[in-house]
Design a protein that fits this description.
By secondary structure, the chain is an all-alpha fold. Helices cover 69% and strands 0% of the residues. The chain has 13 helices and no strands. It has helices at residues 4-17, 24-30, 42-56, 61-72, 77-89, 98-107, 112-129, 131-141, 147-155, 166-175, 182-196, 200-209, 214-226. Helix 9 (147-155) runs parallel beside helix 11 (182-196) and helix 11 (182-196) runs parallel beside helix 13 (214-226). It is globular.
Length: 227
């Protein structure tokens, strides 16, 4: 495979060609002015990425780190979105060592719009295939001062359904009780809400017996109230 710089060049060109500067200010404002934008809405961006991957293929395991870091270094946010699109489509080649790459992507230019995709679709996939290695990273992340890593530990099992390690999830939730961080309390509720689709009784019992933040409680029971 060519170098990461050579590989991503056609993608950079394709995204720049799809840019709509008229859309950029609103997109930047929506993300609280934290990032610059080219002004590419999600469907158009995914179309550019899909065309690129058809022509150039997915990165292999050896090159994924350099490709992700190359896209992450670009100033506009759509390049990070494209990186997440690509790694989500390439989870089958990822190895336990790529959890270090995930940590970089979570902790750098952090916001929910990239963190959640990495946490759920990438960290989740690696930990499912390599549980022993996954446990080592989760053990480190669960006590991190970086709440985005703690959010990741709460969300990585979101698609596990009946394979969810309930004891792990509830212990992680309890460790974060009393947090004033919106994104932690939202993640607690989201994780419980998703598991309520698999085991509603267990979630209800846990919610009733645990001093959850009001936000977490509302989110946890939202799907059950809509049934």
């Amino acid at each position: 495979m060519p170098s990461a710089k050579t590989y991503v060049k056609p993608l950079l060109v394709g995204l720049r060609e799809a840019a709509d500067s008229a859309q950029a200010p609103a997109m930047k404002k929506y993300m609280r002015d934290q990032f610059e934008y080219l002004g590419i809405k999600a469907p158009a961006r995914r179309s550019v990425v899909n065309t690129f991957l058809k022509e150039h293929g997915n990165p292999d395991a050896a090159s994924m780190d350099d490709v992700m870091r190359s896209l992450w270094s670009q100033p506009e946010r759509e390049y990070q979105y494209a990186a997440v699109d690509i790694i989500e489509k390439g989870t089958s080649v990822l190895l336990p060592r790529h959890l270090e790459l995930c940590e970089y992507m979570i902790c750098t230019k952090s916001w929910w719009d990239t963190v959640d995709g990495v946490a759920i679709n990438v960290v989740g996939a690696i930990c499912r295939r390599h549980p022993a290695h996954g446990r080592r990273f989760i053990k480190s992340w669960r006590s991190s001062d970086d709440f985005w890593l703690r959010r990741t530990t709460l969300l990585f099992q979101l698609k596990y359904r009946d394979e969810t390690d309930w004891d792990l999830l509830t212990s992680l939730i309890r460790e974060n009780l009393g947090s004033k961080e919106f994104f932690i309390n939202k993640a607690i509720g989201w994780a419980l809400r998703e598991h309520s689709k698999t085991d509603s009784d267990r979630v209800v019992r846990f919610v009733e017996s645990t001093a959850l933040a009001p936000l977490s409680r509302r989110e946890a029971l939202k799907w059950l109230k809509l049934k």
